[in-house]
Design brief:
- By secondary structure, the protein is mostly beta strands.
- It has 2 helices and 17 strands.
- The chain has a 4-stranded antiparallel sheet with strand order 1-2-3-4, with no helix packed on it. A 4-stranded antiparallel sheet has the order 8-9-10-11. It has a 4-stranded antiparallel sheet with strand order 12-13-14-15, with no helix packed on it.
């Protein structure tokens, strides 16, 4: 059922509560509020216009959103207002890491993205953060926890990781150790070397990406 409300360019992430209230986020830092499934209004755009890739809401009115350039924001009023967590992550993350996934369970929060070699965990609602190493480098695109101990992470090249200790250790159940053999970067689609990619990918079995 289409939601009622103002039309916008598009949304990239969203979270909704059983009540029908929720929040949606866009590719240029846009944020919107849902009220029983209807888009009431678009709230202030986050400074810097960084893309938001994931957002969560908890039953206690708290929530988290993450995005490019190490973007991490939290809310205590179901997304009406957002701000940085009480404990900031290392400053160097803003220069080298884009966040694509976030999960929360009570006061526990996990965030990760690209590269997928580390998942950041907070056990006290963002006051302090610890690194959880995955031993995998390909980007992680989504996280989900069923309780404070058991979780799953999925990402590029078919990677699936699981944990049974709250993220202290992660085990690759699929796609572990996979890497690209060929990466082609081009400004225009017509410049892609389709013949070479088909040859090396299909004939030689090299994992390739464009």
């Amino acid at each position: 059922t289409p939601s009622e409300g103002p039309r916008v360019h598009g949304w990239t992430a969203g979270a909704i509560l059983p009540s029908g209230n929720g929040v949606v986020a866009g590719p240029r830092g846009e944020l919107g509020i849902l009220d029983h499934g209807s888009l009431l209004r678009q709230v202030d755009t986050l400074k810097g216009l960084r893309a938001i890739h994931a957002v969560t809401l908890g039953s206690d009115s708290t929530g988290w959103l993450v995005g490019d350039g190490g973007l991490v924001q939290s809310t205590t009023n179901n997304g009406i207002s957002w701000g940085p967590p009480a404990g900031e992550l290392p400053l160097e993350l803003r220069e080298c890491m884009d966040f694509h996934a976030v999960a929360q369970m009570g006061e526990h929060v996990w965030i990760t993205g690209s590269p997928g070699s580390v998942i950041w965990h907070s056990a006290d609602a963002g006051a302090t953060w610890t690194r959880q190493l995955t031993r995998e480098t390909t980007p992680i695109r989504s996280l989900h926890f069923v309780d404070e101990l058991n979780g799953i992470a999925v990402g590029d090249l078919g990677k699936i990781l699981t944990t049974r200790d709250g993220g202290e250790t992660w085990t690759a159940v699929r796609g572990g150790g996979r890497h690209l053999a060929i990466l082609a970067i081009h400004a225009y689609p017509q410049q892609m070397p389709l013949g070479s990619l088909a040859y090396f990918s299909h004939e030689w079995g090299y994992r390739s990406a464009v």
